[in-house]
Here is the input.
Amino acid sequence: MTNVSLALPLADEKLATALTEELQHVEEHLRSATSHADTVVNEASQHLANAGGKRLRPLLTLLAAHVGQGVNDDVRQAALVVELTHLASLYHDDVMDSAPLRRGAPSAHEVWGNSVAILTGDLLFARASRLVANLGPEAVHIQAVTFERLCLGQLHETMGVRDGDDPVEHYIGVLADKTASLLATSALLGAKFAGADHGIQQALARYGENVGVAFQLADDIIDLTSDGDVTGKTQGTDLREQVPTMPVLLLRAQVLSGHASQDDRDLLALIDSDLSDDAALAAAVEQLRAHRVIELTRQRASAYADQAVRELDSLPEGPVRQALQDFAHILVERTA
Here is the structure.
């Protein structure tokens, strides 16, 4: 049995203990939900679950339930559904991004190839759908809308910016669909199945949406500034694969405005060049991590976290609201 620890330090010991126990329950059922009788399929389907992770989405579901009447079997099922959905999306994301590592382990497509990785992701999406069906038609609808947004986010990222659209706003839209939608659903389902009133459910969904954008903007910084041995990801993968991130978009906007320095123009030219060579990639990462666009990205992430916290104004004061506030800020301030 894998012991879990909270990715969120809590001042309230009673709440921390309850969440740890509840998350342990989800973790145990996650092993069962990702298992398969076929040995080869089982190895692939459990690959990322066994690699660990912060379990932020089920944690948010469980925490949101404490705004209502607390965790029950339906809340636990919802927490399992959102983590299965997240894991499924990672199999697909790593194929799309050609990411060699995920959570410190070789990505599934590196081990079994793209087709197996994609089909394994599909299998986990199917498992999540089967489980959410037990929660009723409204939960199925919420899950379907979330799945649609996940796909749209990936499509919009892949297709790129249309002529006349603002690249930064396009990117925020991608983050809202591809990352924030599932965090919004995580909070919504926790509150819903714990019996919170409709207004609280919607406030927590908006909270999760803003937290999700803040989380991904922070990830853009971490991809450039943190040690890959700590994050479990290859540093600069997005740069190498020409995947747009906020620091690069802000740099590009500065250059296109005509007010950039020669150093800025040279850096953008390097980023737009062939970064298949490790030395070229390392040079681009080193220069970009020292650039002011990192701080500008951090400010944007903090602004979304602050907006998430403002969505909690209708919640009563207490350890649960404080934990949700801390959750938003910790996701921005983390280094891995």
The CA atoms of residues 143 and 190 lie 13 Å apart. The domain at 16-226+305-333 is CATH 1.10.600.10 (Farnesyl Diphosphate Synthase). The chain has one domain: 16-226+305-333. The chain has 17 helices and two strands.
